[in-house]
């Protein structure tokens, strides 16, 4: 379902594809920088100190989240400049794409790249060695990882809409809410292998973020009801 966002809403528009690829690149750069800092911190520390290594892992995750959101802000500023350029070049003085559409496409770009890396890590684990659950652990590792990947793709899409709206209207509390939600979802991963403790809250946050993004995009309960009832 997550990759259907690209096929049905982005694939036919070249401009949207460019924005999506650029958004994926921004997320990739943020991951590269955060991974580099975490790698240096691990190499400079005592590998035998388990408490320190766990603390560095938590630090790495939280720092990665903050860096991703910082790059999301940089990408917003870049797209804002791009809109001004598109307006200046257009004959009618209008941009061919709105900031709301850019926010959606940028969010999908962040989400798809995040999901792609999650899938790569999952496939790497599937190659072995070992068997999932052989020591009595949960055998639902791959299934729950797939569901977690999907929720992160959707969350990045909704976070993109919320974040850009907050930047556009200078509602800094909306930006703070996105950062807090992102930190929360990432922190919930430390509940594993208690997968219910991470999946259920993440999906509840996804529903809340989806409803919020829908309302900020101009949606209403009446429009949603007409859509569900297949009424024009």
UniProtKB/TrEMBL annotation:
Pfam family, any one: Aph-1
Family annotation (InterPro entries): Aph-1 (IPR009294)
Transmembrane intervals: 17-41, 56-75, 102-120, 140-163, 175-196, 202-221
Location within or outside the cell: Membrane
Database matches in PANTHER family: GAMMA-SECRETASE SUBUNIT APH-1
Quaternary structure (record): Component of the gamma-secretase complex.
Task performed by this protein: Potential subunit of the gamma-secretase complex, an endoprotease complex that catalyzes the intramembrane cleavage of integral proteins such as Notch receptors.
Family designation: Belongs to the APH-1 family.
Protein name per UniProt: Gamma-secretase subunit APH-1
Species this chain originates from: Irena cyanogastra (Philippine fairy-bluebird)
